[in-house]
Amino acid sequence: MEPHVFQEVWTKYMVMYFDCLIAHPSLMSIVQLLYNNPSTTASLTGLVLRHLVDNLESLLETNGQTVAVAIRLLRLTFFSVANLPEGIDRLLAPHLPRLLVDIFPMAARSQDARNFLCVPHYLFRALGSKGQTNKFDAIHKEIYPFLAELLDGVNRALELTDDPVQREQLVEIALTTPARLQYLVPYLTSLWRPLVLALNSKTPDVVKQGLRTLELASENLPLPDLLDPNAEPVAKELVHALHRALKPGGTHAETAQMASRILGRLGGRNRRILSFPPTLSYEQTTRPVTLPVEFTSHMASMQLGPACDVALAVLRDVKASSYHDAAFNFIRIQIFSLLHKGIDDQASEDFFVKCIEGSISAIHLSNLEPAASELLREISKSLSEMELSKESNSQSSRRFMVNSVTTWFFEIIVTVLVHRPSGSDESARRLIANIIQDLHDRGQGEDKDRARWTSILIMHLLTKFQSLCYNADWKHKIAGATGISIFISDQIHLGTAWPYPREIELCRALVMILKDMPVDPPSETSEVVTTMTNLVRFCNKPHEDSMQVEEPLSEEARKEMTISRRMIVMSAQTKAAAIRLITASLLVVEFFNKHQNLRQRATALLFKALYSSDKEVKHAAHDGLKFLLTHQSRLPREHLQAGLRPVLMNLADASKLTTDSLEGLARLLGLLTNYFKVEIASKLIDHFATLASDENLRLAAYGPMADNDIIRKLVRLLNIFHLLPRTAVMYLEPVMQQVVHAETKIHAVSPTPFTPPMSAFLDCFPEDGVKILFSHIKDNRWVQSFRHVIQENTATKFIQELKEKGSQLAERLEEAEHGHAGVPSILLCMDLAKLDPEWMAGKSDILDALKVVWASQFTAMMDDSAFASARLVLIRAIYTIWMEVFKVSPRVDILATLSLIFTRPLEMSYADVLDFIAVHVSNKTSVEFKHQAVQHLFVLLDDQTTPESHLLQYLRIIVIPLMTAEFRQAASPDDVVSDGFMTRIAGKVWKVQPSPWTHDVLIELLQVTSILILHGFPKLGTDTRPLVARYIWDLLRETRPMVRSTVSLTAARFFSVKELVAEKFQRPLWQGLLKAPQDGEPSLISRQALDIMTPVMPRLPGNDSTLKWDYQICRTLGEEQHNLVTVVHIYRLILRHSDLCYQSRELFVPQIASGLNKLGFNPGNTPETRALALDLIDLIIAWQRKALEEQSSTMVVDSGSSTTPSWTIPSQVKESIVTYL
């Protein structure tokens, strides 16, 4: 396959392949095989990588199969990229911003960030698997600009996660970044934290990676740079980790040697940690909680603290499910014991806290969740009742004082929302809601003091959630927001008065969460906003404050001017915000009139930002300039020159052009069209011709277009022309010529990246565009480019103008009758028909011209071999037009014309035409239309010039399917078959003797007759039925097997009607069908006819037993016992009609038993015949069981009268069957 064809096919069907890959993962072997093929690996790798990067959001899905397939395919693709001999930078460079920077915000929004973090992880592993070779130098240079954002993203993600697997992923990403050490030095500060985590890891490979990185740094960097002040926060952990790595032993020998070398190179500077404040441990002086144990000789005590630690560790370990019940029961007993004895010292308080933490851990275990929730609710009830009863008995003070134990309980219970396994865990929310509701219900009653104290306890719990919002950890903040949302949810009912005094405080706490939101907004951010909105609605106090700026923002503008000088190190969002602030400050006209220099600098900044590589910055700059021009009719010359000089200087040389500068020029032209001369178009055309060299286009044709820098520049160049003044129409044809040349060189057969800008240019001058099209209508290359514009359907004015010139298009179609010159015109008609089939259905001149061309392709076949491929294209295009027109306007003439395609053998697939007839014509048209289409058969029969091949295909493809569908849709046969129809078909078919048709036409006419007999027999009058019978009987003498089988089926359907009894015709037909033909097995049609005739034969009159149907079967078995084909044929008939043959089993069972050995043991028998023998034995057993059931039921009903015993299988027959088995 040609490379450009390979690329076109994969580009078109990539989505379909990925969908199939999700359903059938084994299809991954296709990509693996093509990756190993040197001729396809580069092209396919680029296409798959583009698809995966564009659809990275699929990793957000909850469908595990989709995520697994995407990750596996990403890994394969990255390693395929690393194995390429060259061009790695060209493939990866366009995707690096998304793979290295955008991946962290997406990971923050994901429920499982590991799915996204494996993307840079696998990329760096693939690039590092081949070592530091020269071919990776180019891609390393492309990665360097993203190092700062990459390492910042790693550190931000480390702050947000406590998952050990995710932490190790992030550490490996930071330590395996493919960059040389000298480029990492400026960002060494960002590496300290991942390095310390690597040294503290439990995975040996990660520890070794961290030690190698640290050793490499100590070898190549000056020691003051290595131990800079920025490392001071982690210096202590770093040195302690190195000391732990010194542990001796066989498994730690390598890491110990590396750690000792590093410490040696540090030259004692690790002792700097001695100047840091020491970390002191604290030991309690109170008596620990113990359990008394009585021995025979003395009493002892056992500390419960260590046992509680073990139970807590077990409940936090999901894998230790076998010990969960025991650990939870231990903690529950200890809690009840503490509450019973009382908590009166620090040790018992600490022990109580540990037990509550264990219960909270049990909440997240599905098998313990109900019991743990009930336990915590009981604890809450007990503590709250203790608090309320204490206050009720207290007479000294009316101030409510919360016990320290209750305070500790509230402090810990709120953490149940911090340690949720996922955001969808409802068990924690349900527990908090139940505790709050229980507290509220305890305060209901006539005791006002009790109600007030209960309210204080609830507000105390609310304060705990509110304080979580100010915690530095993001999970605690989200837990605080979730707790507040529970208070205002429908899960609890506290009334409507409580939130008013706390509304401002709660809103302030929620705003603090948004203020401290991480740079990469997590998925829970929307929950905070929703909680704040619901809180305001709950309080029923919507605030609609409007902010008015009264003071000029001169000081802020000056600050932004200063900050804008350092925009290169600012994030894209900050740059865009700064530009919007500058734009807003331009409203202060009085200030800028006094400071023209500042205004000029602001304008220059907007011009400069217009050429930024970030879309958000470009949009902000464009909006700023547009706003400036709205409030100022004309820019000063010096401002304009300062803004345009950079782009005009780059425009002088094609090699200096960049995609950003060309996009900025297009935006400028959109704003300042009157400031540019139209002659700039000639320069742009020259640059297009220079960049669109044959070599550049050849390379572009073998890879993804969207990733090719030359193609992107050419597209940006084309996007400028439609923004030029109206006089640019003179350049329309030269530009189109360049596009035609480029699309020809890249072998384009579908819309290309050049199509959208070219559509915009053509839409500016539709009349001139149509003239250019008709002037090159015979050139397939030009027409192909115009077809891309029509297929894209963005040049609406151009397409409308072309439709208005439909008569000229019809004139061009006449040339297609005698050669391939008119093929481009027909292809244009096909695209227009797909775009607007209703318009095409109304263009009778075009359709008539197409009919002439279509008929000429099948009535006079040409022998021009050079025209063979063009003929196939022409035929496919015309029948596509027929189908599109038929969908909106069903026409019989189109249907008759369409059937011509089947009259000639062509090297093309007709599957789409057959699907169209089966699905649309048969199922989506009315009964009236089907009737007209069937009646058209007589038009073809009356026309002496109709080729027999056309008549045959019209019968086979149109008439027979439509008649079947027509009878299925109609309420009665009268709606389908009229008396006139029967008369006409009798005169044209049944009365014509001898038949003038070939055997193929005869078969189709017999099919029509069979359908009429099956569905419309009542419409066959008494004078017509003998005519049909004579017609069938005459054809039964045919010797051609296919005709004889078809006429037998028609005869069987005719004789299956109950009103008809013709013994002298039925018996010969039946006997003939019982015997297999001499030249092979019975056809499927013959077996179908036999199945129809078998239920008919018992209805025949006669007392002669030798003429009965069952006797005839046994007689045929005896006569044809040496013909295995006939024997198998009859046995299968018996199996298919077992219920009918049951009454005659005394005839069949002995015959079957005697023939088992022939089926099973004769040489040359197939597995099918042996399986048939077993099926026959099963049938005999089923008959015997049925006979016994009938006999037993008869004995019960007629117990008082004598009955004739039913036939039973003789013993010798049973013995022969058992012997065979």
List keywords for this structure.
single chain, 1221 residues, mainly alpha, 2 strands, 67% helix, 1% strand, extended
> Radius of gyration, Cα only, in angstroms?
44 Å
Measured by DSSP, the beta-strand proportion falls in under 5%
Sheet with most strands: strand arrangement = 1-2
Average pLDDT level? 80
Major sheet size, sense and barrel closure: 2 strands, antiparallel
- How far is the N terminus from the C terminus? 57 Å
Poorly predicted tracts of residues? 541-570, 862-867
Q: What's the helix count?
A: 64
Question: How would you portray this structure in words?
Answer:
The protein is an all-alpha fold. Helices cover 67% and strands 1% of the residues. The protein has 64 helices and 2 strands. Strands 1-2 form a two-stranded antiparallel ribbon. A hairpin with a 4-residue loop joins strand 1 and strand 2 (299-303). The longest helix has 31 residues, at 1167-1197. It starts with a helix and ends with a helix.
SSE layout:
Elements: H1 3-23, H2 28-35, H3 41-54, H4 64-83, H5 88-92, H6 96-101, H7 103-109, H8 114-128, H9 137-143, H10 147-160, H11 164-175, H12 181-184, H13 192-199, H14 204-220, H15 223-226, H16 232-245, H17 253-266, E1 290-294, E2 299-303, H18 305-316, H19 324-341, H20 346-363, H21 369-393, H22 404-413, H23 427-442, H24 448-468, H25 474-487, H26 503-515, H27 525-539, H28 554-564, H29 572-585, H30 589-594, H31 596-609, H32 615-630, H33 637-651, H34 659-671, H35 680-691, H36 694-701, H37 709-721, H38 732-745, H39 755-764, H40 766-775, H41 780-792, H42 796-804, H43 806-813, H44 823-835, H45 837-841, H46 844-859, H47 868-888, H48 892-898, H49 911-923, H50 927-942, H51 948-969, H52 979-990, H53 999-1016, H54 1025-1035, H55 1041-1055, H56 1063-1074, H57 1084-1093, H58 1109-1119, H59 1124-1136, H60 1138-1141, H61 1145-1154, H62 1156-1160, H63 1167-1197, H64 1211-1220
Antiparallel strand pairs: 1-2
Helix pairs in contact: 1-3, 3-4, 4-8, 7-8, 8-11, 10-11, 11-13, 11-14, 13-14, 13-16, 14-17, 18-19, 18-20, 19-20, 19-21, 20-21, 20-22, 21-23, 21-24, 23-24, 23-25, 24-25, 25-26, 25-27, 26-27, 28-29, 29-32, 31-32, 31-33, 32-34, 34-37, 35-37, 37-39, 38-41, 39-41, 39-42, 40-42, 41-44, 43-44, 43-46, ...
